[in-house]
Amino acid sequence: MSSSSSSSSAAAAAAAGLAGLAFMFSTSILLQILVALMYVLVPMPCLFFGGGSTHFLTSREGGGWINAAKFLTGASAMGSLAIPAILRHAGLIETGAMFIEFTSFFILVCTVLCFHRATLDEDW
Amino acid sequence: MDTNNLLAAWPVLGPGVAGAVFGAGWWFWVDAVVCSAAAVPFLHYLPGFFASFAALMFNSVSREDIGDGYYSPYDDSEWRVKLWLFISYVVSFVSLAGAVGFLVQDALTNTGPSAWTGTAGVLQCVCILVSGLMYWTCHSED
């Protein structure tokens, strides 16, 4: 009797461990999807309204659509910063994963700025 | 020198900063709803929606319409713009007051949403309205 109960409790512990691993795996997939989604969503307003180059980012002239593109880019960039913070607050991811997400966003921003500087230096 | 540079850069950066603040406001609310142990009633969502609607309202008029740069005795439509702006001001004030009221209610009762839900609601309204004001100061028409 005791051996069957101990084996059933061992099975229950193994099942709980497996569920924990499955949960971790699904959370990592969620983060991967989130990062990929952000790489697509954040540049989209600039793709549609930007006119083919990054010059509109620092140009003086405004215009309704360019302002709307900047607004949407700012909002989606804030979203890519906010979602890891919310997941951390809800306890779904660890603090280290949140900081990894922030670092990847920072690297993306630096890449865009370097690209902008590089295209400005080119002579057409 | 720095303030001059900031004023010159504001029309370039302003819409992006306004979008970021707007997003921050709504994400505060999402965080409160996700992390709330109790179910948040639909009534608590209303201040955020009405604040967004008010920000949209006062950004949909062009600033030149209410200026006195050109006065025409045949054009008396300025009062419509001013009425529209007044209504948007009333809606934004009521939404902010409603959010503060929900914060007080959440802080005083143990059942229902927590104090963080009420705080996030107030932060949401403030961020949305500030973002609307920022966008209003920097959007240019042409």
Automatic annotation (TrEMBL), chain A:
One of its GO terms (cellular component) is membrane. The chain crosses the membrane at residues 12-42, 62-87, 99-118. The keyword Transferase does not apply. It is found in: Membrane. Keywords: Membrane, Transmembrane, Transmembrane helix. The keyword Membrane applies. One of its GO terms (biological process) is late endosome to vacuole transport via multivesicular body sorting pathway. It comes from the Eukaryota. Pfam families: Vps55. It is a multi-pass membrane protein. InterPro entries: Vps55/LEPROT (IPR007262). Belongs to the OB-RGRP/VPS55 family. This is Vacuolar protein sorting-associated protein 55-like protein. The lineage of its organism: Eukaryota, Viridiplantae, Streptophyta, Embryophyta, Tracheophyta.
From TrEMBL, chain B:
Coiled coil: none annotated. Signal peptide: none annotated. It holds the Pfam family UPF0220. It is a multi-pass membrane protein. GO terms for cellular component: membrane. The chain crosses the membrane at residues 7-30, 42-62, 83-104, 116-136. This is Salt tolerant protein. Keywords: Membrane, Transmembrane, Transmembrane helix. It is found in: Membrane. Its main location: membrane. InterPro entries: UPF0220. Belongs to the UPF0220 family. The keyword Transmembrane applies.
